[in-house]
Amino acid sequence: MTALTHLNHSRRSLARISARGGTFLVALALCLVVTTWRGPVNASAGARPGNRAQAAARTLGVTMGADGTLHFTRPRADRLPLGHVHRLTVAGSHRPDGSCEFRGQLPAAATAGGWYAEEVARNVRTCATTYVVGTLTQAALRQLSGASASPPTMASAPAGRAAGSALAGVSPATSYALGYTKTQWIDPVNITITSQVMNFKWPLYGAGGTLSASWPSYTFPYDGWSGGTTFSGFNTLSDNSGWWVRADGHFVNYDFAALVFFLLGLSGWLACGAPSSTRADFYHHPKVTGYRSGSRSSTWTNSVSGACSNLVHVSAWGGSGWASA
Amino acid sequence: MGQRLSGNAARVGVALAAGALAAAGLGGCSGSSAGGSGQPASPASPVASDAAGGVALKYATALFSPSPGRARAYVDPASRQAFRLVVSGTAGARMRARGLRVGETRLDGDVAVTTLLGRLCKTTPGAAPQCVANDDPASPNPIFKIATQQQPDGTWLVTLATPVGR
Question: CA of B38, closest CA in chain A: separation in Å?
Answer without folding.
Answer: 15
